[in-house]
Specification:
The chain is an all-alpha fold. It has helices at 18-27, 33-43, 58-72.
Length: 78
């Protein structure tokens, strides 16, 4: 079990996350470690529960993995 790590995340080697990391950079942001770990876990086929305090970045942690996947494998419609 991992504790909450609000430290900035290292750059990941998964090329599917490149557009996400570029978007964060464009915003002037750096993803937090738990966010990047969540994205990588999702893209590896894992699932889990995100439990951090309100305002800590859960939404970005939860949605950017699926968005990265959709950008990597576009389909017609949703």
């Amino acid at each position: 079990m991992h504790g909450l790590n609000l430290m900035e995340a290292p750059v990941t080697a998964d090329s599917r996350l490149t557009p996400i990391l570029q978007w964060f950079e464009h915003q002037g942001w750096q993803p937090l470690t738990f966010q990047a770990e969540t994205w990588s876990a999702y893209l590896a086929g894992n699932s889990g529960l995100i439990q951090v305090p309100t305002g800590s970045g859960k939404t970005y942690a939860a949605v950017m993995g699926p968005i990265a996947e959709m950008l990597d494998q576009p389909t017609d419609g949703l």
